[in-house]
Amino acid sequence: MPLSARRLGRGRTASGRCRGVNPAELAILAVTIFVAAGLQGSIGFGAGLVAAPVIALVEPSLLPALVVTLAALVTLLVSIRERAHLDVRGAGWALAGRIPGSVLGAWLVVSMPALALSWLVAACVLAGVGLAFLGWRPAPRRRALVCAGALSGIMGTATSVGGAPMAIVWQGQPPARLRGTMSAFFLVGSLVSVLLLALAGAVTADVLEAVVWLCPAVLAGFGLSRCISRFLGAARLRLLALAASAGGAVLLVLRLLLGA
Predict the structure, then answer these.
(1) Which domain holds residue 207?
(2) What pTM was computed for the model?
(3) I want to staple 32 with a disulfide (CB 3.0 to 4.6 A). Which of 54, 85, 108, 206 is the partner?
(4) Are 61 and 198 in contact (CB under 8 A)?
């Protein structure tokens, strides 16, 4: 199960097969994506918040393209499942801001070093969690949706963590409508981000190989989300996602400080 030599520091034999693969790293990534997809499918956001800090610890060179690409898959599945509850107008205004924000985010990917992007991931996650806990609840009107969409595009494309702005604007909506509308928004936004990252050269063969190996974890997490949403209310799921996100971001900050 090889991720490439350049990305994971492994070598290849003369026959082309990967040697010395550490299965623990792939297992960590798979478990992380499984949990992230389960949360995303249950509450409409949280995949990037949970996955990005852990991936930044295991293999930061796969960010942000790996999370953004896998997020496109899980949001497609959720959008299909919750299509009857989609707020088309609200998602449209948010996307009007997301596209130019994604262009700026792609520029950050090619302009900033990997270490700076890792710090940006941690800062974005902690800022998003802090604002959510502070209880800021802007009304989901046109201006707020466009601004949140733009900020989500910048954060999502540059760091794969773009859920917090939209979650703040759409919080308080019925669970099914929240999941459906946010998933449709993130589906289009993720596809735009993947395209821009590909044009910027960030969607490498190593990222695509990782996507193939981790797709089963996405599908399993999406399947689990049906069970989770039945037994846990939206408020508890949201709290769980924010707590996991904050913990991952703190862990990343500690790793960056120790490695400084």
Answers:
(1) 22-259
(2) 0.76
(3) 54
(4) no
